[in-house]
Amino acid sequence: MVSRAQTHRLESGGLIDRSAPLNFRFDGKTLAGFEGDTLASALIANGVKLVGRSFKYHRPRGILTAGSEEPNALVELRTGARREPNTKATTAELYDGLEAASQNRWPSLRHDLMAVNQLFAPIFVAGFYYKTFMWPAKFWEAIYEPAIRRAAGLGRAAGVADPDHYDKAWAYCDVLIAGSGPAGLAAALAAGRSGARVILCEEDFALGGRLLADGGTIDGMTAAEWISRTLAELTTLPDVRIMSRTTLFGVYDGGTYGAIERVNDHLPSPPEHQVRQRLWRIVAKRSIVAAGAIERPIVFAGNDTPGVMMASAMRTYVERYAATPAKRIALFTNNADGWRTVEAALGAGLQIAAVVDARPDVSAAHHALAAKAEFPVLNGSVAGVEGGKDGVRKISVALTGGARAEVEADGLAVSGGWNPAVGLTSYHRGRPKWHDDISAFVPDGAPPGMVAAGAANGAFGLGACLRQGFAAGAAAALNAGHSGNAGTPPVADDEAFSLTPLWHVAGKGKAFVDYQHDVTASDIELAQREGFESVEHLKRYTTLGMATDQGKTSNVAGLAIMAAVSGKSIPETGTTIYRPPYVPVAIGAFAGHHRDETFHATRLTPSHHWAAEQDAVFVDTGLWKRAQWYPRAGEKDWLESVTREVKAVRGGVGFCDVSTLGKIDVHGPDAGAFLDRVYINTFSSLAVGKARYGLMLREDGIVYDDGTTSRLAEDHYFLTTTTAKAGPVMQHLEFCRQVLFPELDVQLTSVSDQWAQFSIAGPKTRDLLREIVDPAEDLSNEGFPFMGAREVTLRGGIRARLFRISFSGEMAFEISVPARYGDALVRNLMLAGKPFSVTPYGTEALGVMRIEKGHVAGPELNGTTTAADLGLGKIMSTKKDFIGRVMAGREALVAPDRQVVVGMKPTDRARRLRAGAHIIPKGEIPGSANDQGYVTSVCFSPTLDQWIGLALVERGRERIGEIVHAHDPLRGEDYDVELCNPVFYDPDGGRQRG
Amino acid sequence: MRHSIFSLARAALSGHKNWQRTWRDASPKDHYDVVIIGGGGHGLATAWFLASEYGIRNVAVLEKGWIGSGNAGRNTTIIRSNYGLPGNTGFYELSMKLWERMEQDLNYNTMVSQRGVINLYHSDAQRDAYARRGNTMRINGIDAELLDLAAVKKMMPFLNFDNARFPVQGGLLQRRGGTARHDAVVWGYAHAASTLGVDIIQNCEVTGFSRDANGKVTGVETTRGKIGAGKVGMAVAGSSSRVAAMAGLRLPIESHVLQAFVSEAIKPLIPNVMTFGAGHFYVSQSDKGGLVFGGDIDGYNSYAQRGNMPVMEDVCEGGMALMPMIGRVRLLRQWGGIMDMSMDGSPIIDKTPVDGLYLNAGWCYGGFKATPGSGLVFAHLLARDEPHKEAARFRLDRFRRGAMIDEKGVGAQPNLH
Amino acid sequence: MAEFSWASRSPLEHALVVGAYGARDVEPGISLTEIRNFELIQVMARRGKGAELARTAKARFGMAAPNVPKAVSASDVTLIWSGPDQFLVLSKGGKHAIDILSEAFSQSASLSDQSHARVLISVSGAKARAMLAKLSSIDLHPAAFPTGTAAATSIDHTSVNLWRGYDRPDGQAVFNLLVFATFAESLWHTMLDAAAEHGAEIGYSEELG
Amino acid sequence: MRIVCPFCGERELGEFTYLGDAKPVRPAAGASEDDVFDYVYLRDNIAGETTEHWYHGGGCRAWLKITRNTLTHEISSVEPAAGAGAAKVGA
């Protein structure tokens, strides 16, 4: 039974389910509706006319349309963290408990104090702000801008994290169809019957498009009957997929389309484990745009009064929702189609006050209808509307010939004709073509594989829509390689379509073109007067068409008016560029799963879970989580832990997971020759069983990456990269192999994840290793000298690789085992290391020891330094060609005054250093002229018991011993430092060779 | 008519019937002292500085479409001078100082809004790099502050601090940075330059160069006929290679698409300009209420002024990683501009090997914020035939000499800058 | 002298929880099974040795190695195409371990052991395709991706080898995924998120399917 | 964009990485600084059809030569790099 509250609901008819009543709240007031309603239709059924306030003047606004083109009826939907500003009431599906609030008003919708803006309307014309608010300069940020920002902006975002989930998915089809109206359904039938994989997207929750409101007879059936039969057949076809609540919003290269599925927006919140919305990337061989057309307003004084509604929308509310926007309706039309609203209204027992028809001749049938229903047909135009918050009261009509008339009505239906939805067909910067017969822009070409059909293609008759849709469906299927029998097309009559173009009725009072942005006809005239004649200038100067409705109702009228005032034709004036998305899409949907902690994937080392058991502190390095240090009970800060770890290594033995290094198998007879071309130093001469440090340049001569590479066999090298460059170096080497040096017989395979690799360092390294490694293996200095590399067997028979290389400067080995044994190896090292109090150390201690040792790393390999800058010029071979050799010789890269790596320590031993400080000659006032370098890496050195650092300093190596000034205004620090040898620890390297 | 609240009120009384064109709609003359190709912000600013600073008023600006139809109208409106390398630092600060007096200079409100630009950092290494950069700025007299986590939380409590993949640790803040209304900058320079006698000629596409026997450029051939010129300046970022090719030049430049996005208008949510340090995302909120945001270039050479979907997703992922509160805010429009990506990520302002032809190009992402500075130094070069001191390092031969200005340190791969 | 255990630990040992996951009110639409402890060898032909490699492979495995994106199986081994002139050898029990194969292919190919570099996950069930559509950009429609089809592709910006094995006894398609070991735990969580709405049955096995 | 990898078939853009114009050829050993400079720094930057190096890193790891229109993004041909796979090249 019809709830008492629904004063404007018809007793019968419509596609609502009267057995499923729903309660909802609008601005705190509880109202009732039915399943099948939109928020807009339910508001109408409850007699609500005032729904929102406009952007600039805060004028009262009602519901203009019944679709995603709605400029006025925008609300804040839902509450709290789920609040969605600017939600179109016309597309929001009603659910029980829905909460909506009007926006952009204060304190209330009925009494909006911001409406005082209307008093200043004479000043707030298009572009007014460009001409004022300039004095005094400081006032902009302080006063004007905050006021403007507060006044603008429509709805309020939640301001807290979105609690809902989103995901993204891929779909493939032969034929993609946008729209489920007569053209779309006919296309799906033809393509599906032909055997094609079909996806049909419909943004509405009900299928049928305009048929749902306009009805009609197809194959002798009612539209409703035909829709259900068609859907029934489509579901029997194996590869036809119908996606309702899904808007196709964009077309991208290579036949990739973007669509947004509102999976659970029709519920208060998504069920557990389900997403709110899903972003689809649909790959289609062919696509058919059957997105219909949008009825366009006529611009006249007072055309934004609540109760003024598009004619097609008004009959949609009556026919589909059994809701009556008004009891006594006037129609203002310039075409025959508008009259359907009269028929619908009469059919629902509503009164017609009058029809104002701008066409010179109205059909006999319509005259007969008027006579029968006893309403006048006035030849002329609506020149003004009396009314306000509570809707339309009276309409004044300028009759052809000059006389005036007045009509009492509480609702005005307007039809200015129809604009095909040309968005999708124009997103590759295509420009639609003007068709005089329907006075509208029609697609002129489209992205590859796409065609338009039906109203979207300018075919407004039902019969034509079916024919075009069916033909397009069959053709698309055939082009996609499916030649099955498409059967016979559905048949219907074509209504006559006659239209007399009418865009703007001159007259007193504000006449709106862009309702939401309050752009009036006079704004467009002003823009033209000021030289903003190009439609793009017009758009940017007046903000025409830039609101949330993307100008769906305003663009064409706007440029028609511009054409008129600038004395050009509409096609000459042209359209702006159409931009995706077709409807606004939640940012969360584009992100999908990739937000918060799942923003990017995470890489874990083989010892990760063991380290976590030790309460290690982890640091993000690229995608990796690495143990940064291992705090112990009683240690007051990271520095204390790191210092302990360093001392433990220098004094005994420690180990560190270095599995994050990039590892590459370089195989083949030409492996050595290949490495000679990618490294600045030579590897073909490296003996089997030996490792060597290597440095790579970019082709522009700048240092790219470094690492040790070992020769495990004549035709097998094991190359390591830095953690950061693992991926890029692999790509670079493949480029060298496949593109630059294809004649070399070399193969590359990333084995980064195959090996768990640990650095074991400290004077007691051998003692520990002997516990782990099979006793038969000779680890003596003779049996396994510095820079040796070979496979060994561990106790228990596991095969491993040992590399005698040192980053810490201590006697050290790197050991690698197959990754799934990494966890066991760590535990065994701890077990075997007990007697030597073996100490796991993290990346901080690693960093400290490399700085003490003067090894360069990320902060020095910063993409602007040369080998010589890093003190590695001497290893650059002069006897061979290699990547970067020639460009490295350019004058500015070999200039004597370059900034080069040097060590530094504060003259005040107690002083802490910070990276990022700049180096200024002592006693000089800092300026760009004497800014001679900067500090790259610093650490507290437990070994030297003071802070030390590395810096890039002009002529640094010639200035060892010089006292310079470290200038750090950001942190308010200034102090003297002494430039010194970057190798602070064991300069002759005795310890690592010992 | 001079703009002021009073003139506006006066105009209102007369129903705004008396407003003149914002700039004269000029037709080409036979000859100009200087012809500038490109009616974007840089070209129009150059013309205005030539007329106002260097007294050269017989100037034409040629625009193939409507003024501001290139990157001047397709950017994310950010202004800042937080660069770290010699050459960039001084130049962008010169530009920032010109932004600060632009409205008074032009008598046009370009809505310069110094709301602050903050670059967030997420690791110690990033902090150190920002410290180096911030100190460079301070040493050059530019405002810069290094904020710690607490300060960032205070300023932007809405960021994702609790469950972020790459937690924010702090940020480098330039309070004088901010935004400006991009179209208004174009119209403002057009308005002011036109007032000083500069001819702004729209729908006039350059199709070739006129050269004399010695190869000197003596003018341009256009869709509106030959136009003679004492000097010709190119300010056509996005099309630099195509125009230069007409003079037989190859440039160290590639054209790439940079997308930008705007959301539906919402009430004030984001107070400043932010860049995410662990992904490709930067954002500010326009005075109209839209979130204006962007990220990385699409990654391949392109002259198609439209974006692809993977980058669109990548940018929104960055946004949702940094501030998941924007999940329900809707993306309203997506567009793409064509960037002049140079081989070191920094611009080129120099004479060319062709006598009489001057180049202003290679702006990468820096084009909009550089607009006034670019106009001044390019005007200086055109007027004096020697580089302005703040543009002395933007020479064309720096690549040959190895004197690159590579802020990102990625080398000669434009799509990585 | 300490006694060592060399327990092999799967990268998923921490994250994989046997049992039901996600939606409970529905019949589990997906089963996710990790296959543990296998041998996986990358075989890449040397320059100009493609044909020789093919011959050797046929002799060695009794079937031709795939030279297009396919996976072929014999009783004791599966050969998975992984790129031009290269394939992966998946087996158990050491018969096709690195040392043995290196011997066999020494003249024609370069081999790298990947046994520990990958995690093998098998995805099947009525909703397997719906779930994989969220992770993979490959068209898995039966006509486009029949049994035996393989793809070297990416999930979550990470390289994976994906191939369709023999259908389950109940006729459901089975999709096998080789993912990088150090990414495995992270990808596993992504897969669980994708599976949750359909309800998933989680398990692991020592048997190659 | 969709790229038809000659080895894998049609794949989405995300699997590929772009390097740039494939026309410049790396000068042989002993080339002059000018020649190498030209190779490293100067570009035709054509608006229209151009041949480029792309890497199928998210797939079979083959380097490809792709002919693509920079105005429309339409791809007219995709070829493997000379040294992709085990192709025998030169000596």
Automatic annotation (TrEMBL), chain A:
GO terms for biological process: tetrahydrofolate metabolic process. Gene3D superfamilies: 2Fe-2S iron-sulphur cluster binding domain, sarcosine oxidase, alpha subunit, N-terminal domain, BFD-like [2Fe-2S]-binding domain, FAD/NAD(P)-binding domain, Probable tRNA modification gtpase trme, domain 1. Residues 901-986 form the Aminomethyltransferase C-terminal domain. Keywords: Oxidoreductase. It comes from the Bacteria. GO terms for molecular function: sarcosine oxidase activity. The keyword Oxidoreductase applies. The keyword Cell inner membrane does not apply. Signal peptide: none annotated. Residues 608-880 form the GCVT N-terminal domain. InterPro entries: 2Fe-2S-bd_N, BFD-like_2Fe2S-bd_dom_sf, FAD/NAD-bd_sf, GcvT/YgfZ/DmdA, GcvT/YgfZ_C, GcvT_C, GCVT_N, Sarcosine_oxidase_asu. Residues 508-592 form the SoxA A3 domain. Belongs to the GcvT family. This is Sarcosine oxidase subunit alpha. It comes from Mesorhizobium mediterraneum. The lineage of its organism: Bacteria, Pseudomonadati, Pseudomonadota, Alphaproteobacteria, Hyphomicrobiales.
From TrEMBL, chain B:
It is found in: Cytoplasm. Residues 34-78 form the Rhodanese domain. Its EC number is 1.5.3.24. It is an enzyme of class 1 (oxidoreductase). GO terms for molecular function: nucleotide binding; sarcosine oxidase activity. The keyword Hydrolase does not apply. It catalyses: sarcosine + (6S)-5,6,7,8-tetrahydrofolate + O2 = (6R)-5,10-methylene-5,6,7,8-tetrahydrofolate + glycine + H2O2; sarcosine + O2 + H2O = formaldehyde + glycine + H2O2. GO terms for biological process: tetrahydrofolate metabolic process. It comes from the Bacteria. Keywords: Cytoplasm, FAD, Flavoprotein, FMN, Nucleotide-binding, Oxidoreductase. PROSITE patterns: RHODANESE_3 (PS50206). Gene3D superfamilies: D-Amino Acid Oxidase, subunit A, domain 2 (3.30.9.10), FAD/NAD(P)-binding domain (3.50.50.60). The keyword Metal-binding does not apply. Its cofactor is FAD; FMN. InterPro entries: FAD-dep_OxRdtase, FAD/NAD-bd_sf, Rhodanese-like_dom, SoxB. SUPFAM superfamilies: FAD-linked reductases, C-terminal domain, FAD/NAD(P)-binding domain. Pfam families: DAO (PF01266). GO terms for cellular component: cytoplasm. Belongs to the SoxB family. NCBIfam families: soxB. PANTHER family: FAD-DEPENDENT OXIDOREDUCTASE DOMAIN-CONTAINING PROTEIN 1 (PTHR13847:SF287), SARCOSINE DEHYDROGENASE-RELATED (PTHR13847). This is Sarcosine oxidase subunit beta. The lineage of its organism: Bacteria, Pseudomonadati, Pseudomonadota, Alphaproteobacteria, Hyphomicrobiales.
Automatic annotation (TrEMBL), chain C:
Signal peptide: none annotated. Gene3D superfamilies: Heterotetrameric sarcosine oxidase, Probable tRNA modification gtpase trme, domain 1. Pfam families: SoxG (PF04268). This is Sarcosine oxidase subunit gamma.
UniProtKB/TrEMBL annotation, chain D:
One of its GO terms (molecular function) is sarcosine oxidase activity. One of its GO terms (biological process) is tetrahydrofolate metabolic process. It comes from the Bacteria. It holds the Pfam family SoxD. This is Sarcosine oxidase subunit delta. It comes from Mesorhizobium mediterraneum.
